[in-house]
Design goal:
The chain is an alpha/beta fold and 198 residues long. 26% of the residues lie in helices and 20% in strands. The strands form three sheets. Strands 5-4-1-6-8 form a five-stranded mixed sheet, with helices on both faces. Strands 2-3 form a two-stranded antiparallel ribbon. Strands 7-9 form a two-stranded parallel ribbon.
Length: 198
């Protein structure tokens, strides 16, 4: 069984308010991806961190679990670990599909491809968009321990961890984890952090 996890713990200092609440097509950014995920998954979770109380008051999480990452300032690795720890003892969950909270326009074709791919759990599944690899990413249980062991111990300087700008796709490519690419003939979903309106 697959579980979906939406990574939405980061701060939005450039915007002056939680990016998760920025409106896209008349609904909050995070609400849009939660709605899509809940249609396609029986088991889902949302990882919150920065300003989680404000976000929780304004979002309908439907059937999704709310996971609070107290260490959200460490970067995306801490949110990944938060989700992995939550699902570790749920033995019916074989794979986690990680979504980004600021990419609500993931094509249903991509979700179906990840959900229905005939794989044996020995490879990570990553969408290959027209020009690059991207999210959402399916991580089989056999690789969870490897991801849990990623820490923020290595530092660039006294204040900034090398993992604050951690890129899961780059990590998977550079590691010994075998990847299966699912090819889709359209562009990667928009990251709304890059949109001028946001």
């Amino acid at each position: 069984m697959n579980a979906a996890v939406i990574l939405a713990a980061g701060s939005s200092s450039r915007m002056g308010f939680p990016k998760q609440l920025a409106e896209v097509r008349d609904k909050p950014l995070l609400q849009a991806i939660i709605d899509k995920v809940n249609i396609n998954f029986d088991n889902s979770s949302v990882v919150l961190g920065s300003e989680n109380e404000i976000i929780s008051e304004k979002i309908d999480f439907k059937n999704s679990n709310i996971l609070i990452n107290e260490n959200w300032s460490e970067g995306i690795t801490s949110s990944i670990r938060t989700a992995l720890f939550f699902y570790q003892n749920q033995k019916e969950i074989n794979n986690i599909i990680f979504f980004l909270g600021d990419q609500p326009e993931v094509e249903v074709e991509v979700i179906d491809g990840l959900n229905n791919d005939d794989h044996d759990g020995s490879k990570v599944l990553v969408p290959q968009y027209r020009y690059k690899l991207g999210f959402p990413i399916l991580i089989p249980r056999i690789f969870w321990t490897k991801l849990e062991l990623i820490t923020e111990d290595d530092e660039i300087d006294e204040e900034k961890s090398v993992f604050q700008d951690f890129d899961l796709v780059d990590f998977l490519i550079s590691s010994e984890i075998e990847i299966k690419k699912l090819n889709f003939n359209f562009l990667e979903p928009i990251d709304y952090d890059e949109e001028k309106d946001f």
